[in-house]
Amino acid sequence: MSSSRPASLRRVWSLRLRLLAGQLIVLGLVCVGIAAVTELSLNHHLVKQLDAQLGAASYRSALMYPEPNRPGWQHREHSYYPRPGPGPRFLDAPGQPAGMVAAVTSDGKTVDAGYLTSDGGRAALSDKAQAQLASISGSRTPMTLDLDGLGRYRVVAASSRRGDDVIVTGLSMGDIDATLLRMLVIFGIVTVVALAAATIAGVVIIRRALAPLRRVAATARKVSDLPLARGEVELPVRVSEGDANPSTEVGQLGSALNRMLDHIAAALETRQASETRVRQFVADASHELRTPLAAIRGYTELTQRMGDDREAVEHAMSRVASETERMTRLVEDLLLLARLDSGRPLEREPVDLSLLAVDAVSDAHVAGPDHQWELDLPEEPVVVTGDAARLHQVLTNLLANARVHTGAGTVVTTRLSTDATQNVLQVIDNGPGIPATLQSEVFERFARGDTSRSRKGGSTGLGLAIVSAVVKAHNGTITVDSSPGHTEFTVRLPLNGWQPPAASSESAS
């Protein structure tokens, strides 16, 4: 239960929701930042203006103090008519704003204090408020106080013309607070509207932006539903060209998916071809083994029925031996191919191809005296690094192939040459040629041609397959070029950087 809940939560927070949430969070933070900076700037500006007004009010208050009824008052031009009520008389001086707080302190104690009401009257301050004003009598710079019963005030202290008295003047910050509150409400409304508009626009934009990604995912789901485990498989599904444009991030994903599907399709085709070849190989091998086994069984039964006929028994036993030898060759060829396919290392030693060619052509002349065998060798011996027995088998199989599949009188030429990078072995005949349709499959196992090159002479059908496998094991290549009247097998083997010593060259000469 606990493990399924986080998984469901992860599914809810899809990429679309994460993008939308991130967009709204960023927009909200930007709006909050703008509101905070604006509020701070506006507050600083308004407080600065209020401080200027406070300075003027403080100057007027100091100018009107000491009052006329006190000793030291000498300036009749400053006479005015104060209203009755608590507080210094300069509260009623011309230009003093409503809500102004004034106090006269001496030795840290309030002598007289009051404030102007909104209707122009005077009102008394509470004892706590008077104590707050008395506490700032030593400060000559404006400061903010939360006066008891009145709210926030900007207050400043100034010395009177009587050195022992301090005049404290304060102006209400109510208008500033109201202005800041209105601005805050406006910013809140604007932020909500902006977030709502961004949500609608973000949903539309993100949906359209992620539509190609959904189509790519749909393509991947279609591929995942295909049965790829066995049989012939086709992958016709691909991401459309519009969704595979590498100039966009989603297009790069679609292009990568298409390349992956191409690789998978190629791998499936290779697997299918390999399975087909394996099935064909098993069928051909079974057929090739069944033929001699059937012959052996038949001759064995014949021997049992004709036990008194010595001549018939000897003939049957010779046929059994012949079929047994044929089956043995087939099994040995299959075993050799299996070893080569498994990558089992071959012998690595200097091999004189010239001597191998001489021996192979001599053997072919004995096996096929009705053919014309020619040998074209360079003056210097052709030496490679490899397995002498396997390379001799390459020559023997190529010559046997020419002997078996061509008629009497065919000229078969074995040619060796060397260039700067490789040794070249060619077996050329002027026989009927290999059909073009068979040339691409001639090195396959149990490859069958038409009747003009039918299997005969005890061939297992694996000779050229063994040649190809041995050549590849020596890091070489083999090709065939055939037309009526001309067939040419060309084997190219690397030099491997091995050079024969001078004594070998002289002895070969």
From TrEMBL:
* Domain named HAMP: residues: 207-269
Molecular functions per Gene Ontology = calcium ion binding; phosphorelay sensor kinase activity
Q: Which CDD domains match?
A: HAMP, HATPase, HisKA
Listed EC numbers: 2.7.13.3
Q: Which Gene3D superfamilies match?
A: 1.10.287.130, 6.10.340.10, Histidine kinase-like ATPase, C-terminal domain
Q: Which reaction is recorded as catalysed by this protein?
A: ATP + protein L-histidine = ADP + protein N-phospho-L-histidine
Location in the cell:
Cell membrane
Q: Which spans are transmembrane here? A: 180-206
**What SMART domains does the annotation carry?**
HAMP (SM00304), HATPase_c (SM00387), HisKA (SM00388)
Identify one Pfam family in the record.
Answer: HisKA
Reported cofactor(s): a divalent metal cation
Sorted alphabetically, which keywords does the UniProt record give? Kinase, Membrane, Phosphoprotein, Transferase, Transmembrane, Transmembrane helix, Two-component regulatory system
On the tree of life, the source organism's domain of life is: Bacteria
Domain Histidine kinase intervals: 284-497
GO CC list:
plasma membrane
Please report the name of this protein according to its UniProt entry.
histidine kinase
